[in-house]
Design a protein that fits this description.
30% helix, globular
Length: 322
């Protein structure tokens, strides 16, 4: 690992094209340049990778979210990993702020795939020796890998923002899970904030009848904070926001780590009663989302940079989240 004199010249940072800005911010935090790698396309669209400097024996970190276009960004990650492996890098850590294909993490029908496991196998087969990711859709995906996996949380960044916003009024705040699956996450945040917990329970009473949204917990006159790991089309989120307002909530805010924001998401958020949607920069915002006055992005470069530094120095990561 380190060379004992406090300087660590023996690791290199690489970036694909999925979230170059975040990679540059991580590099700036670590006070080192991004190493040279040309990640382009052949004329037929195939990905072309050339590593521009000597990596022999070095610890290499590739920063690449597998967000939209997931297929292209995943292939960039795999091909960069292969290039570094064949260039004799000492170790290769895939730093994946947003792990795509994670939502198919178990068989939900008799002949459906488990893409989260397939992607794990591909990353390992390409030559990664460690994976770092943030707020996985399902924590057990870590077990799909047979190499070390470090699971980071955006909680310090999101909680700092919440504490600033709701300073001194935590007894009037209710942290709400927009579905039954996210209750554990909402409960952890509500405890840290000293706030109440709420759940939006969506159920279809009988076939061909519209779903009914029940709010569990007292939100009358309260400031409510919807919390999720990701926002995709924002359907669940905006329906939950409407249900909270119907139950007498004074205000609705939303917080999530990953801003997938596909399809009608930005339009739905704009039309919704949500005051502000706070997300991180694990996924870069599309122009429409960046232009939306209701969407605010917080940075996780410091968190990722600190994790890389600690991995390299063989220090504990868990103290980052205490």
């Amino acid at each position: 690992m380190g060379n004992g004199n406090g300087h660590l010249p023996d690791y290199m940072l690489f970036s694909g094209n999925s979230n170059r800005k975040l990679a540059e911010q991580v590099a700036a935090f670590l006070k080192r340049p991004l190493s040279q790698a040309k990640v382009g396309r052949f004329s037929d669209g195939e990905i072309q990778v050339e590593i521009g400097e000597n990596v022999r024996g070095m610890d290499a970190y590739i920063i690449q979210s597998t967000c939209h276009d997931a297929n292209q960004n995943l292939m960039e990650l795999l091909i960069m990993t292969d290039a570094l492996k064949r260039a004799s890098a000492g170790s290769i850590c895939a730093v994946i702020p947003y792990y795509g294909y994670a939502r198919q993490d178990r068989k939900v029908a008799s002949r459906s795939p488990i893409t989260a496991k397939l992607v794990a196998d591909l990353i390992e087969a390409a030559g990664a020796t460690r994976v770092v990711s943030m707020d996985m859709h399902a924590g057990q995906i870590q077990g799909f890998f047979n190499i070390p996996f470090d699971h980071l949380y955006a909680a310090p960044v999101l909680l700092d923002h919440m504490k600033e916003r709701f300073d001194g009024q935590s007894e009037d705040v209710v942290v709400v899970s927009p579905d039954a699956g996210g209750v554990e996450r909402a409960r952890a945040y509500s405890k840290r904030l000293g706030a109440q917990l709420g759940i939006v329970d969506k159920r279809r009473v009988k076939a061909n009848v519209a779903e009914v949204l029940n709010v569990i917990g007292d939100v009358q006159g309260k400031v409510t904070v919807l919390l999720d790991d990701m926002i995709d089309t924002a359907g669940t989120l905006t329906q939950a926001a409407n249900a909270l307002i119907d139950k007498g909530a004074a205000k609705v805010y939303a917080y999530a780590t990953h801003a997938v924001l596909s399809g009608p998401a930005v339009e739905r958020i704009t039309r919704s009663p949500i005051e502000e949607v706070v997300v991180t920069d694990t996924i870069p915002l599309a122009p429409a989302a960046a232009a939306c006055g209701k969407i605010r992005q917080l940075g996780v470069a410091r968190l990722l940079g600190e994790a890389i530094k600690r991995i390299h120095q063989a220090d504990s990561l868990s103290s980052l989240f205490v």
